[in-house]
Amino acid sequence: MTRQEILHARRERLFPAELHYYGEPLVIARASGASVFDIDGNEYIDFFGGILVISVGHCNAEVNARIKRQLDTLAHTSTLFATQPPVELAAKVARLSPGGKLGKCFFSNSGTEANEMAVLAARAATGAQDVVALRYGYHGRTGLAMSMSGQSTWRVGTQPSPGFAFAHNAYCYRCPYGLEYPACDVRCAKDVEDVIRTQTSGRPAAFIAEPIQGTSGFITPPKEYFARVAEIVRRRGGLFIADEVQTAWGRTGTWFGIEHWDVEPDIITSAKGMGNGFPVAMTAVRGDIAASVPRMTISTFGGSPLAAEAANAVIDYVEKHDLPAHAAREGAYLRERLDRLKARFPLIGDVRGMGLMQALELVKDPNSKEPAIEETAKVMDLGRARGILLGKGGLDGNVLRLAPPLTITRAEIDEFLVRLESAFAATR
Ligand code: PMP
Questions:
Q1: Ligand 1 centroid – CA 353 distance (Å)
Q2: How far, in Å, from the CA of 243 to the mean position of ligand 1?
Q3: Which of 246, 256, 268, 357 is the best mutation target for the ligand 1 pocket, counting ligand atoms within 8 Å of the beta carbon and taking the most?
């Protein structure tokens, strides 16, 4: 099919039909490593990896060979029968999890399902119902997951389920209290206590948060934040769920993003980069939590030998090539260059993130911090014309999100930076 035919058929046959990125829709035909090719053969350096999914490079040959082998051996049995790949995967997760304590896994197909299971497990384990989430958070697209997401954009069309309350997030660039870190003494952490006391029964089942808030533009809390919040929640009998759908598997420079905060969650959820494009997700919990989950729960596709083997192959690849260390090193290099870019372009109000998960928040004026919404779209279009793909985020759509495959080379980063700088220069 031609570009026009695909776009026409998409409008006719898919819903919702709108594409959120670019004035002129991009039609992608193939990809390899950090490169994506459109239907006309133009090449782009992919700095968004299909929303942080492409962790070990597009069409990674080693990973794909294992998926193909599994596909030809045993693709599906349902969870009615035992197979080897999911038990191997759960053992890897237990070994890599912070403190090695998350010894039990429930596998499913998406981040949304993983979070649904996390809330179910926390409610079953604590006997409590209330869940505290964060403003600006995103946890998925089912009714329950939308109800725990703190962004109106992603809550449309459904009556939110009861049982969720929202605390202020640790958005230092736009501090909800107008304070400055570290003089603020992380005031926002205390809001979790206020919310528990004023908007819940006082006995929460859980607190759920992304270590780095993804869709809202890689909002990165200060280093004290999660230990303080976890202490508040645990003191009142609740569990700490880390939604690592975006931040796990080396992305931030450690296996799990939460490791940067020196606290061990009771439950970790993940998906996205876990399968490098293969749909696979997990809810990893402590043994005692798993024991309280109702026995009659099933996911037909979840934890299939095929999906589990895809994740096994990705994790083995990340481990073999020590990609968390690579992400830390190359992420630090990228960050240093982005900070320099900020010094040159007042349009860049904030640079934040960790490892190969970095964001630029664009503002019309560094003092007013008015979101630069049209300019963000313009930089994305100008970047596309220069052969780079960027992600967008933020409540106002004024944050550029950078998350290349963890296999990205220094040469590719340098080439990306030249093109990004040129895109910013052209917005003036
Ligand atoms: N949690 C987070 C932090 C996410 O970023 C997303 C997806 N953007 C989800 C959950 C939902 O994942 P999925 O789209 O795979 O259901």
A1: 18
A2: 9
A3: 246
User: How far does the chain reach from its first CA to its final CA, in angstroms?
Assistant: 38
Q: 76: CA distance to ligand 1 center in Å?
A: 24
The one-digit pLDDT tens for each residue of the chain (428 residues) are 999 999 999 999 999 888 889 988 999 999 999 999 999 999 999 999 999 999 999 999 999 999 999 999 999 998 889 999 999 999 999 999 999 999 999 999 999 999 999 999 999 999 999 999 999 999 999 999 999 999 998 988 888 999 999 999 999 999 999 999 999 999 999 999 999 999 999 999 999 999 999 999 999 999 999 999 999 999 999 999 999 999 999 999 999 999 999 999 999 999 999 999 999 999 999 999 999 998 878 899 999 999 999 999 999 999 999 999 999 999 999 999 999 999 999 999 999 999 999 999 999 999 999 999 999 999 999 999 999 999 999 999 999 999 999 999 999 999 999 999 999 999 98
Q: Which ligand 1 atom sits closest to the C-alpha of 109?
A: 15
pTM over 0.90: yes
3-state SS assignment for residue 349: strand
What is the rounded CA–CA span in Å between residue 299 and residue 392? 32
Number of Cβ atoms within 10 Å of the Cβ of 149: 27
403 Cα to the center of ligand 1, angstroms: 15
H/E stretch holding 421 reads: helix 410-427
Taking the CA of residue 215 as reference, the ligand 1 atom at the shortest distance is 5
Cα distance between residue 219 and residue 208, in whole Å: 15
Apex 326 CA angle, 169 and 30, nearest 5: 90
- Strand, coil or helix: what is 264? coil
The residue whose CB lies within 8 Å of the most ligand 1 atoms, and thus the one to mutate among 54, 55, 108, 139, is 139
Q: Which atom of ligand 1 is nearest to the CA of 113?
A: 16
Residue with tokens 């296999």: 407
Ligand 1: list residues with CB < 6 Å.
51, 110-112, 115, 138-141, 210, 214-215, 243, 245-246, 271
